[in-house]
Design a protein that fits this description.
With 182 residues, the chain is mainly α. It has a single domain (24-181), classed as Four Helix Bundle (Hemerythrin (Met), subunit A). It has helices at residues 2-8, 24-46, 63-82, 96-114, 137-161, 174-181, and strands at residues 13-15, 18-19, 123-128, 131-136. The longest helix is centred in the last third of the chain and has 25 residues, at 137-161. The radius of gyration is 17 Å and the shape is globular.
């Protein structure tokens, strides 16, 4: 998997001499998020399909629903950076094949996101929960990374509460990412 991210999520050029991702910390955090998300989604595709319907405190927030939420939010956050309307969200089936498709879509979303992540800091205005708000583009990038962390932990917790403690979050931390990327 490290090679995949070494190829997919590398510094790319917009034009000769114009490198994307001039902030190495931001790039590393985003790449880590993409790697960890993909790792979790791949694990979900290998679990018994009933595990995707497990929930804990909120019956609507199943493992599969949370995974879908992570991936469906990516184009919405990207649309904010691109100053576009949010795209229509379509959930992936709560099946092994659905999780494989979700993992593949997440990789595509990450690749698209990297083409927009390195822009000069700018205040963006958009509608969030029916209200017009303004946030820095770097805050949107930080939200994207934090959002993945938050919901990966939620997925791991839901599975553990349902006696399926299979996602080792320590194996998905930035240090593990760096080791896997070498």
């Amino acid at each position: 998997m490290a090679l995949m991210f070494g190829v997919l999520l590398t510094n790319q050029r917009r034009s000769e001499g114009d490198l994307l991702m001039t902030d190495p910390s931001l790039l590393r955090l985003y790449k880590h998020m993409a790697w960890a998300n993909h790792s979790v989604f791949t694990q979900l595709s290998e679990l018994p399909e009933e595990a995707l319907s497990y929930s804990a405190w909120n019956p609507e927030w199943t493992v599969g629903a949370v995974a879908n939420h992570i991936v469906m939010s990516q184009p919405r956050l990207l649309a904010r950076l691109k100053k576009e309307a949010a795209p229509t969200e379509t959930a992936f089936p709560l099946t092994s094949e659905g999780m494989k498709a979700l993992a593949a879509q997440s990789l595509k979303n990450d690749e698209a996101f990297l083409n927009w992540i390195d822009k000069p800091e700018e205040m963006l205005t958009f509608v969030r929960y029916g209200e017009t708000v303004s946030f820095l583009n770097t805050t949107i990038v930080a939200q994207t990374v934090n959002h993945g962390i938050e919901h990966r932990a939620q997925i791991a917790d839901i599975l553990a509460i349902n006696k399926m403690d299979v996602i080792n979050l320590d194996a998905l931390d930035p240090i593990s990412y760096e080791r896997a990327s070498r």
